[in-house]
# Entry
Amino acid sequence: MISFEEFESMFETCEHSAWRLESRSRYASDEETETYRRFARGEDSGWDLDDPWCVVRREQTALGKRFERVRVVDSPPTVGQRYLLDNARRNSAVGEDIRNLWRADAARLQLPEDDFWLFDSRVIARLHFDDADQLTGVELITDPVEISRACQVREAAWHHAVPYGQFVEQMPSGE
# Structure
């Protein structure tokens, strides 16, 4: 297990890529933000493209690093997942490539239900959550067998996931 500060630094110290499988139906930390509260009220979320997270992402992508993620989405999407679909506009604007995959498709592909980041195809940062959907810790994994499996998960998920804009257009009305 590593500290949250060590985890955050990995986005700057990675050499070429950070890829995430985002599989949870909700993230309690999102619900604590003003952007979430505005979104839940039906207002514009008010994304700040100059906040520190965005600045770091832009700096790192300018160095040629790739930041990608596949979000697994329920049908119908939860409020938290709809918030993250809205959030993809911000992430994409600062250089992330975000794709989405319906949960039924993820199950068909036998993707794990773990939330994790894969850095440089060499290190897994597995995110641990409690029963209230709060992030409780980050576990680093360097076992070659687990890394190989995570790379396979990345390839399968990325191949079948749909880019954010296309995914939103294809969502049935009411979702």
